[in-house]
């Protein structure tokens, strides 16, 4: 029984060694390029703001984006430089993004 355990241990060590060799080879190619474009969710995490807050600023035009989707199904990407500029502007003069107005409901007098 200990022979079976030793073999599986040797196999596991061999797999770990192979994985480490692959990681070392990937690292020797140099670092991955720094990410430049982000989703609304990623920008929200970067800035510590909510997804909804970021989406309001995007849809109101206060934060520039590139739409990689369609008009009906947008797939927004935000450049790091635009996030930095937007944050700097907000530090100088913070202003809330416009919220969607709730539809006004009129009470019927005919009931």
**DSSP summary: helix tally:** 4
Structural class: mainly alpha
Biggest sheet features: 3 strands, antiparallel
Number of strands: 3
Strand content: 5-15%
Judging by the overall fold, what is the CATH architecture of one domain?
Answer: Orthogonal Bundle
Radius of gyration: 26 Å
Tell me the name of the CATH class of one domain.
Answer: Mainly Alpha
The shape, in one word, is elongated
| CATH topology description of one domain | Arc Repressor Mutant, subunit A
Q: Provide the succession of SSEs.
A: HEHHEEH
Mean pLDDT, as a whole number?
84
How far is it from the N-terminal to the C-terminal residue, by CA? Answer: 85 Å
Q: Which residue ranges are poorly predicted, with pLDDT under 50 across at least 5 consecutive positions?
A: none
Helical residues, percent: 40-55%
Oligomer: single chain
Q: Trace the largest sheet across and list its strands.
A: 1-3-2
List the topology elements:
Layout: H1 2-28, E1 37-38, H2 40-47, H3 51-59, E2 66-67, E3 76-79, H4 80-92
Antiparallel strand pairs: 1-3, 2-3
Helix pairs in contact: 2-3
